[in-house]
Amino acid sequence: MATLVQAVRLALHYGEEHLGVTDVFGEDVGPPLGGVFTATQGLKTAWNTPLDERGIVGTAMGIAYAGGRPVFEIQFCDYAFNVIDLLKVAGNQRWGSAGAYPMPIVMMTPTGAGIRGSMYHSHSYESWASRLPGWKIVMPSDALDAYGLMLSAIIDPNPVMVLLPKALLRVRGDKLIPGEPDDPAELSKRIDAPLGDRSKWVPDWPAVEKYLIPFGVGELVREGQTATVISYGRTLPLCVQAADELKAQGFSFDVIDLRSIFPYDWQMISRSVLRTGRVAIVNEDTEVTNFGEHLLRRITEEHFYDLLVRPRLVQGRHVPGIGLNPIYESNSVPQLDQIRDALRTLATDPA
Amino acid sequence: MPSPQKSYSGSEDYLPHRSGPAIKAGRRVFSGFDSLPGDRCLEIYKIMVRARAVEERTLKMSKSGEGIFWVGGPGEEAFNVCLGLQVQKGCGPAFDYLHLHYRNLGIMLAMGMSMADHIRQMAMTATDRHSRGRNFVCHYAMPEWNVIPVTSVIAVQYVMAPGTALMQKRHGGNGVSVVLGGDAGSSEGDFSSCMVWSTRPGNELPVLMIVTNNGFGISTSTKTQHSERNISDRGEAFGIPGEVVDGNDPVATWFALERAFEHCRTTRRPFLLEAMVSRLHGHSSSSGAARVHNETDCMRDFERRLIQEGVIHRELAELVWHDAREEADAAVEQVMSEPMPTPDDVDRFTYAPSPVDAVYPEDYTGLPR
What we know:
- The structure holds two protein chains of two kinds.
- By secondary structure, chain A is an alpha/beta fold.
- Chain A has two domains: about 5-190, 3-Layer(aba) Sandwich (Rossmann fold), CATH 3.40.50; about 220-350, Rossmann fold.
- In chain A, about 35% of the residues lie in helices and about 15% in strands.
- Chain A has a seven-stranded mixed sheet with strand order 2-1-3-4-6-5-10, with helices on both faces.
- In chain A, α1 (about 5-20) packs parallel to α5 and α7 (about 235-245) packs across α11.
- The termini of chain A are far apart.
- Chain B is of the alpha/beta class.
- Chain B has two domains: about 10-340, Rossmann fold, CATH 3.40.50.970; about 340-369, no CATH class.
- Chain B contains nine helices and nine strands.
- At the A-B interface, α2 and α3 of A face α5 and α6 of B.
């Protein structure tokens, strides 16, 4: 089973071979490193850029104007704040030109906490990204989804942002990517660059196959009766674990992996809330104008009389950063205990 | 003044009626050792007049209620027209890409855009081919001529040009990515990014960087903010050759552009050209757009030179102006009868059709349902 970051690499390889990807680029994306998280090792179109995020985004747009299909990496989403105007422009090119200029670019960037990344490697980005009309925003929480979402991102002729949860990049999936070797050790041997001199190394790519996850389709990863939990990215597996643990206390949960931040799967959310009448949204972005607030607003407006108890949003604290000492991180963004407590409270709140 | 005949294109249209031939055989107009033949000068002159006429008419629209906001390039016609006439026009990486800013009407007219297609954007009509009434005037977008959508965000075009140039270099041929901005915009980091990305060792790119230096960013004089001798000098650190040209002089400009284009087309490397130009109606209608009289007017200067050199005569000049103004008036009249966008247009063109989008397979249709 591939890890999430290996799945991204396999998807980009498939994109180069079969979907017309012309360029995979960014800081340290090309050889010898192949990305600080190894997402781009061995790719034939991968190249290194100057340390200039604005140049990276602008160049991607230029390549797309001229008929290319670029995938670019912003090394950490923490460094995508100085390009937000360019992202806005990329999102409005088709609308602003009355359909004359599509903008088929893919931006991928590691997001969120969980690796003790301190103040400048722990930000979340989805709430910012959700305010970029014209873009589509996705965030996988396992390897197979990362593969399927990345292929869809490449195929979609609009700007697509693939947010990669840092904390899950090394987590191995439990489902095989079509064409992936069964043995993880074999996969690693074939596609992970060796330490040391890599100048003569070439990957031995497995013949991975097309596998798409459409945008706007969530996954119901647990089915239950008591309440609905909506999450994505790093907090999704924590929600699953919390839901599983609370089963022993007689509670069962619909756990929805949103996968697409925008467009999101409103039908899945709506159906579940209608059935359970109890809902919590869990993510790690900061709590003032958190993307989850938008979902809460819609749920409240459209399901006000279906709700049995007040809806909840479990989220990161509105502080300027996540400090290096683990005490900061564990008290800034949702952890398993906090999520489990929130779900128990949601489940037991008198209707 | 003689009774004008309606005629807009080709110098022969004005010949030989009434006052004799317009161009006297063998006449040339000089700038230093450079000179252009009379027929080329007349071609440039006539487009410059058309550009000025439609700018003035568009500006009037901002005051009459036929439009809302005006921004443009009166004072930059000489440079823009010479540039537009030298562009290799077409679609795709075999041709030049144009990353313009919002003072480049003359380029588009020289390339063959109609006045009406400028005015439609001013009038915000649904027939506005650049933006369907969504963007300010002079914010063009024409994929068939590689005109990249113009934004009001200053200098962002400089980070896009290396991308198109990269594709041109891969494609082969001699296409150039032309990127223009003002002097104030050169302060942005994106301007420096363009130099860095165009000169990566072994990956140099055919980017023709142009600064039209009118001396101001809205109300702020460049001299109070910049200490470099010339903006084009900044290329030296990157090995980018540069030149400063009097952008009010079409003859000097023509040859400076020829040299710059030639460098980019043949070496596949960047060039930085700085053109000193005037700003004859201020920044935009937001500052009143009143006529400025203490700056050189390239239009009147060139006209005077053409008359002095015997390339044209006064009556012909008046006829050219008359025809251009009539053309602009007729275009406005036509455009104002055209349909406006409707509320149904608001969402349109947000997304291109996608085979992998379960919510928006065709286009945006409001929040996910």
